[in-house]
Structure to design on (486 residues):
């Protein structure tokens, strides 16, 4: 039995909704919302990682910091070859391990002798890569390992100052930086400088990350800061390159820090998070992050990479694919050939939008500026929106002739937040019945981009039923494709 109080509250709620709803206006943002930098970052969709350093020459993944600089001696290093490969693979930026856990610096830093400047190679790799990125019009990003197994001061306050100084060098001397990577593998125990010695640090406080992030914000205001818990973007909680189909771009931001133990949560984000922090799905094209000759025949296949694209970009994340540069200083030919073929595959699968001339109508439309016809116009900043009080609505798509589809792309207009909680894709059968398509993934969140693969169906009428949302849905794009690769 409802109490009189509950009934009065329900009436008050309905009344206040109808008083506040003003459907002649732009929808109110549904908090949390992304910053303009976060939106631009997510629209990059795919970009590359490069792991390169002494480990390349010693066949290790985690160097102890005791490899002499003489070991670093690539014979044909060519950053333009890296960038050209990445550009051909349709990726929009490169993040370089300027310093990995072994502490060796790939730039001419004034704070340590342990750098390329004292190797036979001598050249400043960070300079050459950042110049090449500018030349070819792609973005440059920085990975600077907080953990350092070379510096004798590691574990003391002196090291943290050293770390900030290095960050400052990288943020001021190499032009614009689009992303800065704060690795969650940030030390505590193990080998240092070749000695088996433990230095306990408290991962959540030692590095004073807010201070480091302040340096980035001051010197590179448009850079997005990556760590397990953002603040710009978050690790996705695995190193396999995928996000869960249900993927919120939110975190309970105060709970998560680099090295956060409950990292599996990051695969879906926090549905009740209070800050915008979308996921970046990182993985390597080979089993290791660094080059090992023994992995030359273990490069991921085009099929595997394509699947990961659907489960990263197509699950509301970005895709950060690593290339272990080899001992010559080049991206290995197998890796570069594979990644270029991968992009051709994606363009083949998602290049021909069969809904481009379709008619879109919606069961509810906020006002004529937000008409469903916007859904097919290919523009980023026009969108269909429902009325304020509507959190479930249908979009019907009609094509002139029958089309066969097995992929649908849906996008929310994220500057106003991530809203959709559940949806269903349907097609109309020849006897006029709406039937859901068969997919093995849950159809819950959409976010910046959701790509649903399903068993192919042929129809002239399709329907996207948004069955639940945090606020009135705002969708800016719907596309449909047929791929002969099921
Ligand atoms: C991890 C590191 O420990 C690996 O060596 C690699 O750099 C990967 C991208 O992040 O946390």
């Amino acid at each position: 039995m409802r109490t009189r109080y509950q009934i009065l509250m329900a009436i008050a709620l309905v009344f206040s909704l109808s008083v506040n709803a003003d459907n002649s206006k732009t929808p109110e943002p549904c908090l949390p919302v992304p910053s303009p930098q976060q939106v631009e970052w997510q629209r990059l969709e795919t970009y590359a990682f490069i792991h390169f350093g002494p480990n390349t020459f010693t066949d290790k993944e985690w160097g102890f910091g005791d490899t002499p600089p003489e070991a670093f001696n690539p014979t044909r290093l060519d950053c333009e070859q890296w960038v050209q490969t990445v550009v051909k693979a349709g990726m929009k930026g490169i993040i370089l391990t300027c310093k990995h856990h072994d502490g060796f610096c790939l730039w001419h830093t004034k704070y340590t002798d342990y750098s390329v400047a004292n190797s036979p190679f001598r050249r400043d790799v960070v300079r050459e890569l950042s110049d090449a990125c500018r030349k070819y019009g792609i973005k440059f990003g920085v990975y600077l390992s907080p953990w350092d197994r070379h510096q004798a001061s590691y574990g003391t306050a002196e090291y943290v100052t050293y770390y900030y100084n290095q960050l400052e060098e990288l943020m001021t001397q190499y032009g614009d930086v689009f992303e800065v990577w704060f690795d969650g593998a940030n030390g505590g125990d193990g080998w240092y400088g070749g000695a088996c010695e433990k230095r306990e640090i408290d991962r959540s406080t030692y590095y004073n990350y807010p201070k480091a992030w302040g340096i980035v914000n001051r010197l590179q205001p448009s850079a997005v800061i990556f760590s397990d818990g953002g603040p710009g973007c978050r690790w996705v909680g695995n190193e396999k390159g995928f996000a869960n189909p249900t993927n919120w771009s939110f975190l309970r931001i105060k709970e998560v820090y680099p090295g956060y133990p409950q990292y599996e949560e990051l695969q879906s984000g926090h549905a009740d998070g209070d800050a915008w922090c979308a996921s970046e799905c990182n993985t390597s094209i080979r089993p290791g992050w660094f080059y090992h000759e023994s992995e030359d025949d273990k490069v991921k296949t085009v099929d595997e990479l394509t699947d990961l694209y659907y489960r990263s970009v197509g699950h509301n994340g970005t895709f950060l694919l690593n290339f272990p540069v080899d001992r010559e200083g080049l991206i290995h030919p197998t890796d570069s050939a594979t990644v270029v073929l991968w992009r051709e595959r994606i363009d083949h699968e998602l290049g021909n939008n069969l809904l481009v001339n379709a008619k879109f109508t919606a069961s509810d439309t906020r006002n004529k500026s937000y008409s469903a016809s916007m859904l097919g116009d290919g523009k980023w900043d026009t969108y269909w929106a429902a009325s304020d009080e509507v959190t479930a609505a249908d979009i019907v798509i009609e094509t002139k002739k029958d089309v066969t589809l097995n992929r649908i792309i849906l996008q929310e207009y994220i500057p106003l937040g991530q809203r959709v909680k559940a949806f269903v894709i349907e097609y109309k059968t020849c006897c006029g019945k709406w039937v859901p398509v068969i997919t093995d993934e849950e159809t819950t969140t959409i976010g910046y981009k959701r790509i649903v693969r399903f068993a192919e169906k042929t129809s002239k009428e399709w329907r996207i039923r948004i069955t639940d949302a945090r606020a009135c849905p705002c969708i800016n794009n719907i596309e449909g494709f047929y791929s002969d690769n099921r």
Residues 31-349 form a domain with the TIM Barrel fold (CATH 3.20.20.80). Residues 61, 183-185, 282, 289 surround beta-L-fucopyranose (CB under 6 Å). The longest helix spans residues 4-20. DSSP finds nine helices and 19 strands in the chain.
